[in-house]
Amino acid sequence: MPLSYPVQDFDSPFGHFNSELSDSDLRLSAYEILIGACRTSGTRPLTYIPQSDKTISQYKVSTADAPSPPPSLHRSLTSSAASKVKRSLGMRSGSTKRRLGGGESVGNKGRATVGELVRVQLRVTEQTDSRIRRAMLRIAAGQLGRRVELMVLPLELLQQLKSSDFPNQQEYEAWKRRNLKLLEAGLLLHPHLPLNKADAAPQRLRQIIRGALDKPIDSGKNSESMQVLRSVVMSLACRSFDGSVSETCHWADGFPLNLRLYQLLLDACFDVNDESIVIEELDEVLELIRKTWGILGLNQMWHNLCFLWVLFYHYAATGQVEDDLLFAANNLLMEVEKDAKASKDPEYSKILSSTLSSILSWAEKRLPCLP
After folding, report:
1. Inter-residue contact 7 to 169 (CB < 8 Å)
2. Where is the composition biased (Basic residues) (predicted)?
3. Is the pLDDT of residue 106 over 60?
4. Which end of the chain is more exposed for a tag (fewer CB within 10 A), N or C?
5. What are the boundaries of each domain within the chain?
């Protein structure tokens, strides 16, 4: 069942996203972030790291800022064990039949992997996936040992992919525009830190992006335009609260950009053919998604709040046909309550209040009044 409820009934509680990027653009950017986050240094950037039962059992109570290593994108989907996350949220487990592109179901595809499932769930074509992975290998080869949190991914992608990597010039230019718009969203429209009005870098980046949208930028490694873009982008991405230069790059962890990207990743937990159903491979998919926390500036507390909203949204937007989603949201709400008592983050408190208000407002409009 697709998401079919009127959009106006579901204003995002995460805040107004002030960008021309569409959901399709953001979904693809979120997938690029996921692939980048799952890579490691060395020649094999996506390696298998077994997940422990302890990691899964701590899903509801962990407050660590950094996630545990995930299963590989190449891990085969052969396990028949019931989802521990589903069980912890009070959800039923059952066989859900999904279909990969070309009409072949995941359940019948013996060699299907977690990465393949996530790709299909996020509506990314095999051709696009292959191109992204090729770019990530080039980035890894050029920056051995450098963690993805220490680079600005759209900038690296702009430099690594050329027109020859795309079916046609039009698709290549559209891809470059999307990455430039993502830089604009993460560094200018929704930055991690407020922009300094005395700093010339924001205005310079605006000029570069505006010019590149009118006349395609030369993204060659040694091109002057690319060197200028890199210099300006890094000066904005490496700012810190105390004015020093930060080692970590901040380009996708400003609110609400980070929450919007994360929400789209969490959508991969729902059957692409029936979005009222949570997939059976929930544990494995969530373990991969958690790897993006470092780039998006999130932690278990933020995950709980985002997942609460996504569960409720899918319940309401698919016509309230799957009570499991409502029960799961209610159970997760108890964890969010614990998080709220422990949190001193004003941004978290604001978005929590907005989320609860959105849920309450919907309930008052849609549910029958009690006598």
Report:
1. no
2. 84-100
3. no
4. C
5. 164-250
